[in-house]
Structures are given as structure tokens and as C-alpha cells.
Amino acid sequence: MSSATSIDMMKNNPRFMVAVLFLCLFLKTHVCHGADRISGNQTLTSDQTIVSAGEIFELGFFKPGNSSKYYIGMWYKQISKQTIVWVANREAPVSDKTSSVLRISDDGNLVLLNGSQIPVWSTNVSSSTASSSVRAVLGDEGNLVLEEDGGGSNSSRILWQSIDHPAHTWLPGSKLGYNNRTKENQRLISWKNSEDPAPGLYSLELEASTKSYLILWNRTQRYWSSGPWNGHIFEWVPEMRLNYIYDFKFVENENESYFIYSLYDNSPTSRFVMDVSGQIKQQNWMGNDWILFWSQPRKQCEVYALCGSYGSCNEKSLPFCNCLTGFEPNSQTKWDLNDYSDGCRRKTPLACESNGSVSNGERDKFLPMPTMLLPNHSVKAGSAAQCESTCLNNCSCTAYSLNDNDCLIWIGDFLDLEQLSEDDGTGRTFYVRLAASELPNPKKKNGVVIGVAVGSAVGISVFLCLIVFVILRRRKKILKPGKTVEGSLMAYDYRYLQNATKNFSEKLGGGGFGSVFKGTLPDQTVIAVKQLESVSQGEKQFRTEVSTIGTIQHVNLVRLRGFCSEGAKRLLVYDYMSNGSLDSHIFREKTSNLLDWKTRYQIALGTARGLYYLHEKCRDCIIHCDIKPENILLDSQFIPKVADFGLAKLVGRDFSRVLTTMRGTRGYLAPEWISGVAITAKADVFSFGMMLFEFVSGRRNSEQSEDGKVKFFPSWAASVIIDGGDVLSLLDPSLERNADVEEITRVCRVACWCIQDDENRRPTMGQIVQILERVIDVNQPPVPRSLQVFVDDQENVIFYTESSSSQSSQTRSNTSTASSQAKSTTSSKNSLS
Ligand SMILES: *[C@@H]1O[C@H](CO)[C@@H](O)[C@H](O)[C@H]1NC(C)=O
Ligand SMILES: *[C@@H]1O[C@H](CO)[C@@H](O)[C@H](O)[C@H]1NC(C)=O
Ligand SMILES: *[C@@H]1O[C@H](CO)[C@@H](O)[C@H](O)[C@H]1NC(C)=O
Ligand SMILES: *[C@@H]1O[C@H](CO)[C@@H](O)[C@H](O)[C@H]1NC(C)=O
Ligand SMILES: *[C@@H]1O[C@H](CO)[C@@H](O)[C@H](O)[C@H]1NC(C)=O
Ligand SMILES: *[C@@H]1O[C@H](CO)[C@@H](O)[C@H](O)[C@H]1NC(C)=O
Ligand SMILES: *[C@@H]1O[C@H](CO)[C@@H](O)[C@H](O)[C@H]1NC(C)=O
Ligand SMILES: *[C@@H]1O[C@H](CO)[C@@H](O)[C@H](O)[C@H]1NC(C)=O
Ligand SMILES: *[C@@H]1O[C@H](CO)[C@@H](O)[C@H](O)[C@H]1NC(C)=O
Ligand SMILES: *[C@@H]1O[C@H](CO)[C@@H](O)[C@H](O)[C@H]1NC(C)=O
Ligand SMILES: *[C@@H]1O[C@H](CO)[C@@H](O)[C@H](O)[C@H]1NC(C)=O
Questions:
Q1: Ligand 5 centre and the CA of 54: distance in Å?
Q2: Where are the stretches annotated Disordered (predicted)?
Q3: Model confidence at 425: pLDDT above 60
Q4: Mind listing the domains of the chain with CATH numbers?
Q5: Is 254 in the pocket of ligand 7 (CB under 6 A)?
Q6: What's the pLDDT score for residue 765?
């Protein structure tokens, strides 16, 4: 803070500046405020910092989180949330910053001396240069350079630079690769945890022989690879095709191989981080926070050994790691800092380990854990029938599972157990060995049954009375579901919803945010209850968000009736839509109704109106972020209602995590989702356009044709429209050419405008409504560039624009020319109508 003020004063007050300069000359030993270098016999200590010339980066002492230790670090000068990009003494912290100093040593190295004047860190270069001719300069690209005057002239020699020794962050302009002369590999290495910058278990490095980047655990075990460089992209990172904000280069010669990237001028501040989560993450600063745009491995649970031994990973819970029943973290402190690597330990030793001296003498038991992804390194052990006893009789056996007719057992600790969601068909039941006392008590569970048995023995009349009593009590409860919170929004009891949905027995569907169940209220109103998954928000924030969503009411939006927030449970209660979601009608699953063209047109219009309301008519503009046929519901009159709006915000800011865990969504995602710029309402416009094409064709844009080749429907439709071809040939064959040619043309044209790469060229939802209402006309669209379909490892469908030239920068400049034209000559409105 004080340095910022003094800089301002320096700028505004020349006299003050002269005074400061004079002071600097006079004292000599300390670094000046605002200086970009440590030179000669200057020192940096305590709260002093150096700042790069353009005020981009700052370097000085810092303390991570609640840690008591200090490090020399580099961070962004202008970003309010201190974000460390480089740490000098990762493994050698100092306990006090006032007595520690960073200075140029007599042998010309930059050294950090602790309170006892003992060097704890050094640049460690061998140069016999006098300290007076050496300086350490912090550059605007985030590089601390130790340089030496080159004998009189203005040239200087670089002795050492921090970008050759990256920590956990990879900044634009810095190399990450392999030096074939020194045989040194530069690695990005994660911090141990959020409060300890010491090198952790996860690292990213180049494997020069395959030209691939790998993420390794403990520098040895690989769990992710970028795939080989093919001249344009890394094979398994097809997102790189969309070079909107980065200019990537892979350089290889006899001296070194490396990868380097730079940002275009107007790109947001961006960085790659090898995160403590074991994922490589690309984050962009969006004015008030870092927003995640890309990460690999995409699933958190794919990180090797993330939860340690006896931990279980669950992609849909926060935190991701939990100790198995009967186990507790080895180190609660680290666990709380999201460092799970130490794993878990038994609360109670196994009976077999206790040499039979357990007090109650009970043998160990097995706890079944359904729908698990099994850990590796199992051993096949005889027949399935004897699996349990085989394991029980060998004290080193910690778990077993049955796989078809095989018995698999695990000897000793196991890693990478993953809890899958209930409907995942690949899950298996995993039986964990526990001391008998750690198993959940089965007697409690059967309490009611035992009670009933006893009751019937005593007398049936008593039993009947009991039932009547229970029913009466339930009735009473049902009559009091909760309180009205805001407007018409109800706060429901969990038990009440449990009853209404018959204990969540009738599942209507599952989305990215959780499963939906059908329920019936006592007054016979049918409702849909959504059980939210992985909500990271606290109760208060949740209620605030929910009441905001509750105030949003429109005939084309699904109405939120109420919610439930009890303990960790978060549920939303909606009106029930008797005709289900649009996908089942459009894509004709089983016996669903065939929607005629008129209905489809009305659905398109209604959906557009609903989105227009969300974007422009609510108090806060809401971007839906997940427009697709699954999220358009139909009531009994086939009036479309947009569902799931506002949920991205409810679940948390990290949209990308939410989205990437949703299957099949990506076919509707606008390119900017992957490219890393801020998301605007135009992202919904893109998805809506994709959906319009599907209204016409009656099949998914991503569907493959019979010969296995993908014909991208939007491009084909555009060419038919533009060439004045047979418009009715585009129509869903089930409609047997029964449709209005003018309407199909109108829908296809507006859809083409919607899926333009450049969001400035896409219409607003308001314009789309007017076009569909025939208030305004729509021009002949440009042909959408042929998109490439890519199905990734999680069966997400992603579309990529095929770059017209091999040079990404050229693609880029084409796009920006188009958008600047749109801005300067005709506004995007004019070009539309
Ligand atoms: C550094 O300090 C020494 C004495 O301690 C002095 O002789 C020398 O001139 C100083 N160098 C600079 C660059 O100020
Ligand atoms: C630091 O500790 C306090 C109290 O123990 C806690 O509330 C706070 O969240 C901690 N801060 C961080 C960054 O961990
Ligand atoms: C400085 O480092 C040395 C060696 O690691 C250590 O013995 C000494 O206690 C440290 N001094 C302070 C003040 O931390
Ligand atoms: C400096 O280099 C020497 C050998 O070149 C090495 O033994 C020492 O550990 C290094 N010190 C640091 C702090 O890197
Ligand atoms: C540095 O010297 C070179 C010639 O050696 C000259 O071209 C260049 O302009 C000089 N730069 C500055 C900043 O003086
Ligand atoms: C990582 O590997 C080293 C040997 O290379 C080993 O000593 C260490 O125990 C390993 N760390 C963990 C957490 O397994
Ligand atoms: C690396 O250097 C060796 C000689 O030290 C050379 O044979 C080899 O071709 C170099 N590798 C590359 C990729 O140029
Ligand atoms: C490799 O290094 C040598 C010696 O420094 C240099 O002469 C040569 O030009 C370098 N090659 C490339 C391709 O940079
Ligand atoms: C079981 O006995 C062995 C030696 O007989 C001893 O080393 C071990 O600690 C005992 N285990 C327990 C849990 O008491
Ligand atoms: C674990 O097993 C899975 C599936 O069998 C395999 O893909 C993966 O590479 C294995 N991991 C290790 C570390 O062996
Ligand atoms: C337990 O099973 C493992 C794997 O089959 C075997 O190596 C080990 O010897 C067995 N231990 C005992 C005590 O039977």
C-alpha cells in the first residue's frame, strides 16, 4: 500500500521525486521504492519490493496464507488478489522478513540471507564478477534477470534468469522444455499445498523423445499426456485449434526443444498453473477473479493418487476426497489445505493384526461400497464364491471385489478408488476390510422391523393403532411444508419432499447439476424436485441466489416453486412439465409425439422469448450457459419452458468445471468457451442457433451419418439456403415435407447468424424474437465455416472451426478484421436485417 502511494506522489510531485532520489543516493544500501532492480550493494528486506518498469510484476517477501514462513516471490502488481507466479526459495523459507535480506553477494550471485546472515538461497552461478557490476532486474514479462555490465558498452550479459527456473506457473513468453546441451528438463512443479510452495508431487514436463508434455506424479508416474506435437497442435489437446488468445509455438533444434506461447494484445491476463490439485490449469483474470477456462486431466479423480491410500475420490462432491468409512486422515491439517497425499489410516486396528487379543474377539468384517471404480494392482485369487473367506484368511488382504466370475483381492494399501454416480454402469461393489466395531450397526437399521414383529406378537390391535398414529403424524407434517420466503417461494422440509417424491423413486432425468425426481403434493399438484450436486455455497448465499431465481417469472421459463436447504442438502422444487424435455420429441425416442412444423416454430419462438427475458428483462442479466434441447421443457400445451437457468451461478463460479462434467453438452458450446475470453449472453445465442438447426433436421448436429463421415448439418443447410436449393430437403424426413418454406428459410438464416465465430456478428435474443415474429427480416447469412467434429475421451462432442490456413495468427487476424468491419461500417444489427 505504502509503495503505491509513494509512486503516485512521485508521479505528481517532481520535488518529492528529487527528494527521494537524493535519499536513495544518500543511503545507497536499500532498494528504492518503485525501483525495478537490486544493484551493487543494495538490499531488499522487510516490506520493500521491486516493481517492473511497466508496473506489471512486483517482487518481495510474502507469506502464503496462514503460514508463518516467508518467501521471496513474484506477483502481479495490478491484480488485487495476490497471485504468486514465481518463488525463489521454495524449499528454504525464512522465519522473519525484517532481518532477512536479498542482495547481490560478493561473488556476483543474488542471495537470500536469513536472520543469522546465513545464505539460504542463491542463484548459484559461478562467475567471478565483482558485485558492483551485477544487478538483478525485474522485467515486465515476469522475469528476474541477473545481469552483468559488459565492459563499458551498453550491452549486458545475462548470468541467470528466473524463467529458466520456473516454479509452478508458466507465463506467456517463457519457455518450458528440455535443454539438449545441459540435459536439463524444466518442470512446472505444483506447490505442496496452498500454504507451502515447496515442490509438491505433481509436475508438467516435456518428454523430448515423443514431443509430448506429460503430467507426472512424484516425477515418475505419468497420468496425463498432451499427445505428440503434430506441427500444429498436440494431438490430445484439440482445443488448441482455437487460437483466440494464445499464439503457440513449438521449437526444436539441436540445442533445445521447448514450447512457448504469447498473448495477443487485447487478451486478458492469463497463466498456466500446475495446481496443487494435480491438474494443469489455464486461468484468466476477469476483473475481479481468476476464472478457470481449461484444465487437464479434465476429471479431478483422474489425478494419480490424489486422495492417498484408503481415500476415495468423488467427482461430484466437494471436497473431492474422503476417507473411507472407518478411516481418518493421516494429517488433518494437510487434509484441510486440500493436500490429501498422506491418505487415511484406520481408526481401529484390524482384529487379525491384533494377534487375536481384541476385547470382543470379533473377526474383521467387510463393508460393501457400491458403484466404485476399482483401484489398480489387484490380485486374482481363486473362486468368486470363496472370495470373502480368501481375503479374510490373509491379514494383508485389505479388500476384495467380484469381477464377473473372478475374485480380485488387494494386498496392503490401495490408491485411486473412485466413487461413481449411482447410474454409472461401470461401477462395481468394493468390499473393504474393517474391524467389526467400525461397521455401521445393523441393529439400528432394523429397529422398525423388530418393533413391528414384537408389536404383532403382543397384539394386532396395538399394531394397527401404531399405524394410525404414524399416519396422523405424517399428515400433520405434510400440512406444514415450510414457510414462504420471498413472494411465492416456499422453503420445504427435506422429509416433506422425501414423502412427496416417494423417497426420490421416480427419476425424470439427470443434468449437470443433479438428478430430477417427480413428486406429488398432498393437493395432487405434480412437482419436479431437483437434487443439486456439488453445491459449494453456504446456506445464506444459497438462499440469496435462490430468491433471485424465484423472482424470475415468465411464461417461457420453468417456474421455481421453492427450495430446501437442510445441512448439506440442497433441493429445488419446480412446476412439473407433463410433456418432458424437447430432445425426446425432436429426436423421436420411443413413442414420443411427432412435433409438426408449426409446433416446432412456436417452440423456437417461445424459447427465444424466454431467453430474451433472461438476458435483457431481468434485474440482473442471466446467461443460461447450457442451452440444449434437454433443458427446454414442454408443458401440456407444448409451450416451451427454459429450465435450469441461474444454476451455474448457484453451483459456483467455476462454470468450466460444471460444464466439462456434463456429457454431450459441448455440441452446443460457443467457441469462446474453450478459447478463454469472457462469456457473454452471445454464448447462449450460439447454443440456441445450434438447436434451431436441430428443430429443422430432427437430428443432432453432431450425429454421424451412416458412412461414418460427419456431415455438419449447419454448413449444408447454409449452402442450400444460399444457393436457393431445395429447402424442404433439409427438413426432418418424418415431417414428409409438410412445412412452410419461408419459415424454414427464416429459421436457417437466423441460425446461421447465431453460430458465427465472432460473437459481435451474432444477433441478440431480442433481434431473434423479432425475426421469428416476422417484425424484421433476416439477410442471407455468410456460410458458417465448416466445423470439424471431435469426440473427446469423455464422449463430449466438440466442434472446431477448421482453420483455413495453417497459421493460427492468420486465422486470428481474419476474425479481428471481420469484427472491426462490423463495428466501424455496419453495426451487427444492420448486417442482419
Ligand atoms: C558498494 O560499497 C562499497 C563499500 O562498501 C563502495 O566502495 C562501493 O563504491 C559501493 N558500490 C556502489 C555501486 O555503490
Ligand atoms: C487462516 O486461519 C483462520 C483462522 O484459523 C481461518 O479463518 C482462515 O480461513 C485461514 N486463512 C487461510 C487463507 O487459510
Ligand atoms: C539461518 O539458517 C541457518 C542454517 O539453515 C540456521 O541454523 C539458523 O538458525 C537460521 N537463522 C535464523 C535466524 O533463522
Ligand atoms: C549450487 O550448486 C552446487 C554445485 O554446482 C550444488 O551443490 C548446490 O546444491 C547448489 N546450491 C543451490 C542453493 O542450488
Ligand atoms: C547499444 O549499443 C548498440 C551498438 O552496440 C546501439 O545500436 C544501441 O542503440 C545502443 N542502445 C542504447 C540504449 O544505447
Ligand atoms: C517419491 O519418490 C521418492 C524416490 O524417488 C521416494 O523416496 C518418495 O517416498 C516418493 N514419495 C511418495 C509420496 O511416495
Ligand atoms: C542432442 O544432442 C546430441 C549430442 O549431444 C545430438 O546427437 C542430438 O541429435 C541432439 N538432439 C536433438 C533433438 O537435436
Ligand atoms: C546451438 O548452440 C551453438 C553454440 O552456442 C550455436 O552456435 C548454435 O547456433 C545453436 N543452434 C541453434 C539452432 O540455435
Ligand atoms: C502382534 O505380535 C507381534 C509379535 O508377536 C508384535 O510385533 C505386534 O506389534 C503385535 N501386534 C499388535 C497389534 O499388537
Ligand atoms: C490403472 O488401471 C487403469 C485401467 O485398468 C489404467 O488405464 C491405468 O493406466 C492404470 N494406472 C496405473 C498407474 O497403473
Ligand atoms: C496373502 O496373499 C498374498 C497374495 O496372494 C500372498 O503373497 C501372501 O503370502 C499371503 N499372506 C499370507 C499370510 O497368506
A1: 21
A2: 802-833
A3: yes
A4: 1-30 (no CATH), 31-164 (2.90.10.10), 169-297 (2.90.10), 311-352+361-438 (no CATH), 470-576 (3.30.200.20), 585-832 (1.10.510.10)
A5: yes
A6: 95
